[in-house]
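Please, structure for the following, as C-alpha cells.
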Amino acid sequence: MVNLGELLEVATNGYLVATNHRVVSPPAAVERYSIPFFYNPNLDTVVRPLPFAHASTAPGVTTDPSNPLFAEYGHNELKGWLRAHPRVAERHHAALLATS
C-alpha cells in the first residue's frame, strides 16, 4: 500500500489524490507491521503544479474546507500538527488555531 501525500496532490493539480490518513488496528493477537517513509522538503518550499502528460485532465486540488491543501509545505505540516495535538495547540497556541 502506498499513501499519497497532500503535496503530491498539489503538484499534480489533483490528478493524484492524497490519501486520508487512517489506521485500523488488527485484533489483539495479530501483529501489524508498518514501515513508513517520509521524504519532505524544507518548510518554506512552495510546490507548484508540475507539467506532465495528463496535466490537462487534472481536476484541480480538493477543496474540502475542513482539510485545505496549501502549496507551502510548512503550512501543511503546521495544519497536521495542530490536528494531531489539539489540546496542546489550544492551550499553548490558540492564536494559530484561529489562522490555520
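DSSP finds four helices and no strands in the chain. The mean pLDDT is 87.
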